[in-house]
Amino acid sequence: MAENSVTSTARLLREEDEDDVEGCGDGMRRRERPKEPWKGEIVKSIVYAGLDAIVTCFSLISSISAGHLTSGDVLVLGFANLVADGISMGCGDYVSATTEQDVAAEERAVTEWDVTNRSQPEQMELLRKYQRLGMSAEDAETVVNIFSKYKDMLVDEKMMAQKGMTPPDKEDKPWKNGLVTFVSFIVFGSAPLLSFIILIPFTDSDTIKFIGACVLSVLALVLLGIAKAKIAGQKYALSAFVTVLYGATAAAAAYALGWTLRNIAGLDE
């Protein structure tokens, strides 16, 4: 019996090696395992907050520049808006994460009560769910019977299969997501404003400073697009292009709106 088991294992390993090799002779090559994307809420917070910060801050600079305000106005309004929005987004991320955890915990408590007090109907619902997904009646019954022996696993499975919710993870730290969102927003959002600081010793032209802000914003968007592609396993060039396009569209809309309102208000020099 043990010999048969060893033989079966060896055969499976051999077949796996054969499956991993494509072609023959000089054209033989081994298929590479695709790279796994980065995981975690922190990554999502960095990308989301960074992209929103660059677009928001540069759009504000565009609208201010269209109104022919000074560099001082850009810095004061820009940094004030940056800090306020960063705090708002950080708190929003924290509140959202804690609310999601509370909802998941409450939903799990409800599901656990149902499994404890209505075991037969709950198992039948799960059985029908598996059959709708294409599982045979016999296999579905086997799976449900196995899950029914382990209450916690059955509760988690019901949450995911019937309610589309993952069980609450005690290791998640909502405050950490909020802090990462705030820091990411401040760091990336500062990029468009750096031009108005760096160029102070070299020029008094607000136009040149605005052009510098455009260049720095594009560079920041490109870097963020590359980072997003690295995280999600996408193509770098396409991700960078889409990210820059999104930022440029928002900035152009803000500039056009600022220019239009300035003319409507009769603020032309």
TrEMBL record:
Q: Is the keyword Flavoprotein in the record?
A: no
Q: What is its main location?
A: membrane
- How does the record say this protein sits in the membrane? Multi-pass membrane protein
For bias kind Polar residues, which ranges apply? Answer: 1-10
Region annotated Disordered, chain positions: 1-35
Q: What domain of life is recorded for the organism?
A: Eukaryota
TM spans (from-to): 179-202, 208-226, 238-261
What would be one Gene Ontology cellular-component term for the protein? vacuolar membrane
Has the keyword Transmembrane helix been applied to this entry? yes
Q: Which GO terms describe its biological process?
A: intracellular manganese ion homeostasis
Give UniProt keywords alphabetically. Answer: Ion transport, Iron, Iron transport, Membrane, Transmembrane, Transmembrane helix, Transport, Vacuole
- Location in the cell: Vacuole membrane
Q: Which reaction does it catalyse?
A: Fe(2+)(in) = Fe(2+)(out)
What GO terms are given for molecular function? iron ion sequestering activity; iron ion transmembrane transporter activity; manganese ion transmembrane transporter activity
Membership in a protein family: Belongs to the CCC1 family.
Its annotated function is as follows: Vacuolar Fe(2+) uptake transporter.
Name of the protein this chain belongs to:
Vacuolar iron transporter
In its UniProt entry, the species of origin is given as Eucalyptus grandis
